[in-house]
């Protein structure tokens, strides 16, 4: 199935490693992107139309719905990065996860999510 046939309407992306954990939740209908930190801190941003389009474009470009259910490595890495994403699309639900190994394009989505919550420094 191609991404153009299955548009993602909602997803949850969780990442943990080095003693920290973050959970991103996005819902297209409300345009809300929420970040929950492992510390209990929660921040929600309302995405602009341009941001919504950019997120949708990144989901399509990375081919999230075609990611394997699980990505693994043969190497033993202690306290590395574990990630998982689950989504709801027009053709149903899906998920993918990995530990210290990532699908092509993973960083395009991950880095964009983190950038939406960067605090601006004022001098």
Give a written overview of the molecule:
With 123 residues, the protein is an alpha+beta fold. 20% of the residues lie in helices and 39% in strands. It has two helices and seven strands. The chain has helices at 49-62, 106-115; strands at residues 8-17, 20-27, 32-37, 42-46, 70-71, 81-89, 92-99. The protein has a seven-stranded mixed sheet, with no helix packed on it.
Category by helix and strand content: alpha+beta
CATH architecture: 2-Layer Sandwich
Mean pLDDT value? 88
Number of domains: 1
SS strand fraction: 35-45%
Could you state the CATH homologous superfamily?
Mago nashi
CATH class: Alpha Beta
- For the record, give the distance between the C-alpha atoms at the N and C termini, rounded to a whole number: 49 Å
Low-confidence blocks of residues: none
- The helix fraction, in percent, is 10-25%
The overall strand count is 7
Q: What is the radius of gyration computed over CA atoms, rounded to a whole number of angstroms?
A: 15 Å
Described by strand count, sense and barrel closure, the largest sheet is: 7 strands, mixed
List keywords for this structure.
single chain, 123 residues, alpha+beta, Mago nashi protein, 7-stranded mixed sheet, 2 helices, 20% helix, globular
Which helices and strands, and how do they pair?
Elements lengths: L7 E10 L2 E8 L4 E6 L4 E5 L2 H14 L7 E2 L9 E9 L2 E8 L6 H10 L8
Parallel strand pairs: 5-7
Antiparallel strand pairs: 1-2, 1-6, 2-3, 3-4, 6-7
Helix pairs in contact: 1-2
């Amino acid at each position: 199935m191609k991404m153009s046939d299955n548009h993602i309407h909602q997803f949850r992306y969780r990442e943990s490693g080095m003693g920290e954990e973050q959970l991103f939740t996005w819902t297209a209908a409300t345009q809300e992107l929420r970040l929950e930190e492992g510390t209990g801190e929660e921040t929600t941003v309302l995405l602009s139309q341009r941001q919504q389009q950019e997120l949708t474009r990144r989901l399509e470009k990375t081919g999230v719905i075609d990611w394997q259910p699980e990505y693994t490595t043969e190497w033993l890495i202690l306290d590395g990065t574990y990630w998982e994403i689950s989504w709801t699309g027009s053709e149903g639900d899906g998920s993918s996860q990995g530990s210290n190994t990532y699908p092509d394009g993973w960083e395009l989505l991950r880095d964009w999510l983190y950038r939406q919550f960067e605090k601006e420094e004022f001098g």
